[in-house]
Amino acid sequence: MKRQLVVLLIVLGAACVAGAQQDAIPDTHAVNRNVAAEFSAAPASAGTYSALANVLAPSSNFDPAPAFAAPPTIAAPDASPSPAPDPKFLYGGRDDFRWQLGIGAEWIRFRSSIFNASAVGVKASVTYFTNDWFGIEGNLSTGFAPEIFKNEHVKVLVYGAGPKIAWRERKWEPWAHVILGGAHEQPQTATFSKNAFAVEAGGGADYRFNPRLSGRLEANWIRTSFFSQSQNNFELMGGVVFHF
Fold first, then answer.
1. 202: confidence class by pLDDT, cuts 50, 70, 90
2. Which residue, among 101, 126, 136, 106, has the nearest Cα to 241 in the 3D structure?
3. Which end of the chain, N or C, is more open, meaning fewer C-beta atoms within 10 Å of its C-beta?
4. What span, in angstroms and rounded, lies between the C-alpha atoms of 68 and 227?
5. 186 pLDDT exceeds 60?
6. What is the mean pLDDT of the chain?
7. Contact (CB, 8 A) for 167 and 173
């Protein structure tokens, strides 16, 4: 009886050892199978996506936007031209300039008790306008005449500065001025100075060819005080005017 009991225990122990070894043998088929193929063969169910969403963001305020937002778009520079500068003046529908430089040929008729002469030369003037009608002018006139005495030629110089008033329109610009200054003449006369006080008054008109250039005609009365006397002289001028 005891022998039979021992044999039964040995058989049961062997059976248990065999079952344990069977469970320990790895399933090589399961290890070698294509796991990626199983995932690609059938799409994940909606429940799987829902479970993943709950795990990643259990909060109801989950924002599906990517963690790194795209960089802000840089606006292209404005290609429109810059605004025009403020006009120097604005009148008569024209934007104009403050400075005028006039230059041209002149003729002066000099008359005195000592001698008379018709001199030809060059006249130049510079004007600065403080507003659209009032300016400050400085000018210089030179004249040269033929010989009157032995080896003596007449030379006349008139210079000065003063106010100028102009009616500045789109094409025509009539104006008037008064110039106070001095005069110089040759030839030298006995006991008299070659320098004298001078007053010039007159006017003219400019015609605008383009914004930078005008033509000018001018006439002036010039009073001088040579030889302890007063002389009434006359001047004509024609030339051009540069605006800047």
1. very high
2. 101
3. N
4. 99
5. yes
6. 78
7. yes
Euclidean distance between the first and the last CA atom of the chain, given in angstroms as a whole number? 141
Q: Which of 209, 236, 136, 141 is nearest to 177 (CA)?
A: 136
Q: What does the alpha-carbon distance between residue 123 and residue 143 come to, in Å, rounded to a whole number?
A: 9
As a whole number of angstroms, the distance between CA 183 and CA 189 comes to 15
- pLDDT tens by residue, 72-81: 666 555 556 6
Residue given tokens 């778009």 in the structure block: 73
pTM: 0.61
Joined together, the tokens standing for residue 180 give 């106070």
Q: Which two tokens stand for residue 122?
A: 């060059």
Q: Which helix (H) or strand (E) holds 152?
A: strand 152-166
DSSP one-letter code for 22: H
25 against 115, higher pLDDT: 115
For residue 203, how far is the Cα from the chain centroid?
36
Picking from 100, 142, 145, 146, the residue whose alpha carbon sits closest to that of residue 122 is 142
For the record, the structure tokens of 159 come out as 């210079």
Single-letter code of the amino acid located at 83: P
In sequence order, what are the residues at sequence separation of 6 or more whose Cβ sits closer than 8 angstroms to the Cβ of residue 127? 99, 100, 102, 135, 136, 137, 138, 164
CB neighbour list of residue 161: distance below 8 Å, 6 or more residues apart:
136, 137, 138, 139, 179, 180, 181
Amino acid making up residue 140: L
Separation CA 148–CA 152 (nearest Å): 6
Q: Hey, how many other C-beta atoms are within 10 angstroms of the C-beta on 24?
A: 7
